[in-house]
Amino acid sequence: MVEPPPAPAPGKVYYDGCPGCAMDRKKETRKGSVPYKELIFVGIISFASALPITSLFPFLYFMIRDLHVAQREEDIGFYAGFLGASYMVGRGLASVFWGVVADRIGRKPVMAFSVFSVIVFNTLFGLSVKYWMAIATRFLLGALNGFLAPVKAYSIEVCQPEQQALGISIVNTAWGMGVIIGPAIGGYLAQPVKQYPHLFHDNSVFGRFPYLLPCICISFFATLVFISCAWLPETLHKHKGLERAVEMVEGSTTQESTEPPKKSLLKNWPLMSAIITYSVFSLHDTAYVEIFSLWTVSSRKYGGLSFSSKDVGQVLTVAGVSLLVYQLLAYRQVNKILGPIHSTQVSSALSIPIIAAYPFMTHLSGIRLDMPLYIAAMLKSVFAITRVTGTSLLQNNAVPQEQRGAANGIATTTMSLAKAFAPAGAGIIFSWAQKRQHATFFPGDHMVFLVLNLTEVIGLVLTFKPFLAVPQQYK
């Protein structure tokens, strides 16, 4: 005998055939329990979409060299910066569009299409033999990969209010692991003929395209995720009279009753202040990943560590594992004790001494280098994901459901523009710093990490009043 669907809670009106109402019914039946199935989908989609974003960084230096676009070795960072920025330029130009589309037709189709774009354009990037082709494929990958706006809205909509921190942290942790494990995949699998000569030969396809293997592996994983999207439930309300979709009685304590009133997004200062703060931190994090990769593989005579791409991949893999452990064991308690604002402030402040310590590690070697480098990379990753999650929670709770896609689209656009500037600016500063190894004022890479710390300080200042306006439910 088939059980009848649960009766609506007092004061609610559900519409048959509406996926959003079906999700609200489902949430009513599992009050207090975590929506594991939906959050697993959120995690793997975020992870698959994030993998190609930074997977090129460990081999970017060598790829620019092999494309023969740089006249001198010191100029490689300059061209690397523009290639790294092309993805974010594409995403910045298209994110609001994808957010609006997600509010119109649903979260699921936009997320599925985004994963499909990874399959196509990430593979084409691995086949690039000209600088312009690499730039074009990365730009199109960014423009068509519009997952971030709908997936953040989705992670809020499948959760009860007390679980929203978990939902957003799953997105940001999976995304953070993707942008860290992506470089690990790039580091271990790029130039396979050189790294694994007993398995790959010069005459093979990987001899002609030395950076194809990591791209194919990421695209294969994205293919599996794309197929799994068929089982992804929709959360957007689809019926006439959206405002009456879930009618609440006075005094109700469910999620919909705490949503802020609908108003112009650009005039919503709690939203916009959180977006600006989020974008500054995103600029810093992207510049950090690129500078860390370029710094570790550059020669010691230029202030680097002379690492191989595999060495960089190993460091970033350990940092990615630390994110997973932190997410599973610690983040919910951190958010419960400190809340999204104070956790953001604390993690930002603790990041500053870590960044300041990096240039002094060039004087170390062996285990004396490995221990502080690995610990610093792990802590930096944990602090970064904490403040990104905190600002994301503030954004999504500053708007009602029907504006979340567009709001996250605006956030993704501003963040992407910041991230587009970050690798280009980081590449230019890194290239300039390598030419001033004997300067009196912050020589060489000391200047690079000083600039990184200045952006961190700016982000930290923006987390305080009067700039940051707090959504009503956090007051």
Quick recap:
Pfam families: MFS_1. With 475 residues, this protein is mainly alpha-helical.
Question: Could you report the average pLDDT, rounded to the nearest whole number?
Answer: 83
- Give me the number of helical elements: 17
Low-confidence stretches: 242-257
Q: What is the CA–CA distance across the termini?
A: 48 Å
Major beta sheet summary = none
Number of strands: 0
The radius of gyration is 23 Å
Shape: globular
Helical fraction equals: 55-70%
- The percentage of residues in β strands lies in under 5%
Membrane topology: Multi-pass membrane protein
Domain Major facilitator superfamily (MFS) profile: 38-471
Main location: membrane
Transmembrane segments: 39-64, 76-98, 110-129, 135-154, 166-189, 209-232, 271-292, 312-331, 343-361, 373-394, 406-434, 446-468
